[in-house]
Amino acid sequence: MRRRIFLGLLGLYFGLPLLAALLYSVATRWTDTPLPDGYTLDHWIGVFGKPDVTSALLRSLLLSAVVVVVDVLLVVPAAYWSVVHNPRIGSVVQTIAVIPFAVPWVVVGAGLQLVTASFAPGLFGTFWLLAAATAAIAFPFMYWAVEGSLIAAGAVRLSEAAATCGANPVQTLTRVIFPAIRGGVVSGALLVVATAMNEFALAKILVGAKFETLPIWSARQFVSRTLGDPNALAVVTIFTFGFLFALSALVVRLGRGRVSTIGRTLR
């Protein structure tokens, strides 16, 4: 009984703000009544027809895609080398993976801003600096997912079998290991996308209005009293939540499928 009460209160705590945003996204007018005075879908129909909204969404998707590619290319070989060829550096990599959570991302952005302005002014305020910074803070999600998949798939045994058959390290990684850990790579990639889509501090500090992502657009709508569109902001908020929730649900589904496959293999 207590558990149900606690879960119900927790659901209200997280659900009421989302419900309010959802109602506001379809409200024609909302004054001093508990519910909107009227409802319409015009906000949903028209918001993504606005050039600034579609541009911000496309920029966020582009940033997410680039960050995923960078993290996959860097993390998968590094995790493979750590697990299979040099397990002693595993603790070092795990320590490095904690750094993005220990250091506030505002501090990371400010530090990168100062360094690039002094030593690489050509990168200052560019998309590529933002992509590199986002890839750095998101890499732990990819690393932990890939490392867990390597251990669960028996990467050491697979590598030994591939070497016995005459495969070189590149062939082993691309043709043997990667197909075996594909689920972990996808799970990590989805978590990286969720991080990149929702990142505000780094984008605001490093690029600002030069590369307005969806979180920056949302913040501009929230603080502007004359140019802001609160109904459009509510629509984008619900859309972003639904998109990220779908990604999270897909991650959970992939994780369950991977556990089930491992269980069948062990039996």
Automatic annotation (TrEMBL):
PROSITE patterns: ABC_TM1 (PS50928). This is ABC transporter permease. The chain crosses the membrane at residues 61-83, 95-115, 127-146, 185-207, 232-252. It comes from Streptosporangium carneum. Belongs to the binding-protein-dependent transport system permease family. Gene3D superfamilies: MetI-like (1.10.3720.10). It is found in: Cell inner membrane; Cell membrane. Keywords: Cell inner membrane, Cell membrane, Membrane, Transmembrane, Transmembrane helix, Transport. It is a multi-pass membrane protein. SUPFAM superfamilies: MetI-like. Its main location: membrane. PANTHER family: INNER MEMBRANE ABC TRANSPORTER PERMEASE PROTEIN YDCV. Residues 57-251 form the ABC transmembrane type-1 domain. One of its GO terms (cellular component) is plasma membrane. One of its GO terms (biological process) is transmembrane transport. The lineage of its organism: Bacteria, Bacillati, Actinomycetota, Actinomycetes, Streptosporangiales. It comes from the Bacteria.
